[in-house]
Amino acid sequence: MHSLSSTRLIIAVSAFLILFGNFAFFSNVTDAYPVGIKNIGFLLSLAVLSACITSILLALICYRYTIKPVLITILVASSVTGYFMDTYNVVIDDVMIGNIMATNPAEASDLLSFRFALYFLLLGILPSVLVYKATIDYGRPRQAITSRLVLIAVALALVTASALVFSNFYASFLREHKPLRYYANPAYYIYSTAKYAASFISLTPRAFAAIAQDALIPASDEHRELVILVVGETARADHFSLNGYPRETNPYLKNKNVVNFTNFWACGTSTAHSLPCMFSIYGRSQFDKNKADNTGNVLDVLQHSGVNVLWLDNNSDSKGVAQRVPFEDYRKPDKNPVCDTECRDEGMLANLQSYIDGHPAGDIFIVLHQMGNHGPAYHKRYPAKFEVFKPTCKTNQLEDCTREEISNAYDNAILYTDYFLAKTIDILEHNNDRFEPALIYVSDHGESLGENGIYLHGLPYMIAPDNQKHVPVIMWFGDSLLHEINLDALKKTRHERFSHDNIFHTILGLMEVRTTAYDRKMDLIKHIND
């Protein structure tokens, strides 16, 4: 077998990645710059420039005996990245990498398919085998370094030439179409991986910072609060009939006296970001996941104030929010009594009354974290009797289904959430004589269902469509609370713009917690009296 220089191997792998790993990148580019006489030169130069940048990147991270392990890792990772970008039009940035790290095996299995196997085999494993079997002539160290420097110099020259010849196009590309770079494979996910890893590196360990240490519930508050916060999963506001959606997806809640907020916006486009953000004292503009992990949140403030706090989870986990409060996992039949093909959100309600009865003193705050509409296997997210809208998409390969089939499955899951929320309100109504009960429902983020070829969620916030950021929010109050809340005035604010930033302060206000950390103007309920 003929030997191959390491430089030529890097060039070959770079060319392969650009040709076969960047369908999403060039598809999005040609949407902005349609193929034609006017744009063809720029598009060809962009392919050359992308190959050159990839070659430079690989030349910098590959050296002698590390070249095969590094290239094989890049090829395998790029095949997986290419699959998700080509199939769902998602972006692999540092936030998405955080989501991947937080994904459990059950969630990951929903994303696997025959097409995924083909990508993994043809674009990952087979070229990796060729790299593994290649006979590499490493040459003398000085010769190898010289060859590598020549490669980088030639690549830089080609990049410079392309930029100069097509300067008008590249000025437009960089200024007006910056999000297109998010689809560059492997350059952008390598950059994002480094960014994600760097976020954990600190020269000095970060100490845990408690907040609102002055928090208390005044002795004059004689009424016991019972508040259930339901954190929805992947529900978008425009598929709630309460928000004007033509399908009846809220037949149960429409018979409850709920306040439905129509203009509510998520902190992020993924659970790993939005969930800790909505419980954090930091607003979206100041939120940082690592900072939040080392800072107290609203649950810590409630527990410090003497509130009985409980987190029940039928999703992956609390993403660090419930680390310091009682937590129960309802994803398995040994805990959840309502399981068929998977354990249902309704199972979290089974022992709620026993928990309430078992705490004869103090206020109670319970979080129910739903499986909700977690995709792409929406057809798994509801019991069979809730399959009202048909036909449904019965696969996780959403691109193989029609838009109607996807929406039908998604809407059936919304319908089940509506039923679940109504059942939760029934429990609260049962306790109206002993407590001041209330329910808050808020989704963590929305979802794309194929609009403009985009599926799922997790796009960078600046380019994410509104259906990934616009979320449903619903409140319900027991009769014993209505003497304290001007319900008519509250309903008049339901079209005002609010966000996850309001959740922290609304919870404190509803639980009657006094602290300097509380901002009344950010309280969805009490700001109406100002």
Could you characterize the architecture of this molecule?
Helices cover 41% and strands 11% of the residues. The chain is α/β, with parallel strands linked by helices and 530 residues long. An eight-stranded mixed beta sheet has the order 6-5-7-3-8-11-4-12, sandwiched between helices. Strand 9 (448-449) and strand 10 form a beta hairpin. Helix 4 (67-88) packs antiparallel against helix 7. The protein is elongated and about 85 Å long.
**Roughly how many Å is the radius of gyration?**
26 Å
- Uncertain segments are none
H and E string = EHHHHHHHEHHHEEHHHEEHEHEEEEHEH
- Tally the beta strands: 12
Concise summary:
Helices cover 41% and strands 11% of the residues.
Keyphrases for this structure?
530 residues, 8-stranded mixed sheet, single chain, elongated, alpha/beta, two-stranded parallel sheet
Task: List strands and helices in order, with pairings.
Layout: E1 3-5, H1 6-20, H2 23-32, H3 40-61, H4 67-88, H5 94-102, H6 105-109, H7 114-133, E2 135-137, H8 141-165, H9 167-176, H10 187-198, E3 225-232, E4 259-265, H11 271-279, H12 289-293, H13 298-304, E5 308-313, E6 327-329, H14 352-357, E7 364-369, H15 403-430, E8 436-443, E9 448-449, E10 455-456, E11 470-477, H16 487-492, E12 498-499, H17 503-510
Parallel strand pairs: 1-2, 3-7, 3-8, 4-12, 5-6, 5-7
Antiparallel strand pairs: 4-11, 8-11, 9-10
